[in-house]
Amino acid sequence: MRQKLLSDGAKELTYEIREIVKKAEQLKKFGVSVYWENIGDPITKHHQLPHWIKKIVSDLALENDTYSYCPSKGVVETREFLAAQTNLLGGTRIAADDITFFNGLGDAIAKVYQFLDPASRIIGPSPAYSTHSSAEAAHAHHQPLTYQLDPNNHWYPDLDDLYKKVKYNPNIVGILIINPDNPTGMVYPLDTLKKIVDIAREFNLFLIADEIYINITYNGTKAYTLAEVIGELPGISMKGISKELPWPGARCGWIEYYNRGCDDDFNRLCQAIDNAKMIEVCSTKLPQLALPRVLGDPRFKTYRQETNEHIGRRSKLISSILGQVKEVTFNETYGAFYNTIIFREGMLKPHQTMKIKNDEVRKLVELWTSQDIPLDKRFVYYLLGAKGICVVPISSFCSELQGFRVTLLEENENELIRIFEAIAEGIREYCGS
User: Fold this and answer.
1) In the chain, N or C terminus with fewer CB closer than 10 Å?
2) 216-242: pLDDT as tens digits
3) What is the pLDDT of residues 79-124, one digit of tens each?
4) Where are the domains of the chain?
């Protein structure tokens, strides 16, 4: 080419949650039955939406206006509904114009980081959710900046680590919170959130809260929103229906701007994000129209509570299995539908294996693991080849820890127990080899 085509930041764009699928698809050609524990899609794990929700969507599909454009920021009535829901929380108040819709939170995340100055950095949690860490690193042309979540303290954030990194890195302009957290399933305690707000206040930062799982909590836990704790500071909350409804295929997410008028730089960032969506005309209209009809229906609260209780029950079943495996550090989860399991120090070593009966599969796994790869990825490949279970290595979540992430989504409890007993068996065999 006449000039270099690719940005230096492009190399930071990775998404192991989907990359591992390529490996699994290769094994399927040799007859391996794959059990997908890599991605948070409730529908593929046998979740059935209630008929009344499907009826709302199908009725909207018969209305001619559904097929037209909507305002660039999103359907006005839907934004008014969402603003009213946030205002009921009693914290920061917003209006419909403080909300902008996107084609899923992935679209929103890309836009938010894209328009930051490359020298301005957002610090986020580690283990990190790949969409955030990759987008932030790509915009900065540098590796992600992270604060540590502590597996030896319920995965709560290390606030001393966060404070020091913010204090001694003047390029940091914002703090990212993922609450409830992906990939750990941790829910930020209210006091912790307030302390993070205090850090942002001290160093004149803004806050980003990915709250896609904010209404998915269980086992007696409540998640507090950014709107409830942010006070007078500027911030952005990211929300959507892909996990909560759930309707992941709708690609429908939105962001809420808090206190955008309190800082000129922050306000200009919000305006740039809105302008980017205006250039695209608008986001998909059908799920926006459905949103207030579904979330505003009195049946939805009961449905969501019952669904959360089922996830909580599955979390307990998984705890009863993996919590007994001495080779790993296991934390129970209280929000979202993931769990991150970490190998204890010294458990993973080069050349460990699991027995793989199919010679073609064994040779392929041996080829993959002959490369210079993290030790937890090596385990993940052997688990895939030996047990047909597809999980994601934690080293791919911008973390120096060694482990793997699973989901809590399998609704067939017998199947769930079988999968996690096989994972436990695989850990013991691999670490004992």
Assistant:
1) N
2) 999 999 999 999 999 999 999 999 999
3) 999 999 999 999 999 999 999 999 999 999 999 999 999 999 999 9
4) 8-47+300-432, 51-297
What is the bridge-based pairing of β-strands 99-102 and 121-126?
unpaired
Q: Is the domain covering 51-297 a CATH 3.40.640.10 domain?
A: yes
For the chain, give the percent of residues with pLDDT over 90: 86
pLDDT at 39: 83
Calpha distance 383→425 (Å, rounded): 10
> CA-to-CA distance for 348 and 381, rounded, in angstroms?
13
Q: pLDDT-based confidence at 16, cuts 50/70/90?
A: low
Q: What is the pTM of this model?
A: 0.94
Q: What is the CATH number of domain 8-47+300-432?
A: 3.90.1150.10
For position 17, what pLDDT does the model report?
A: 59
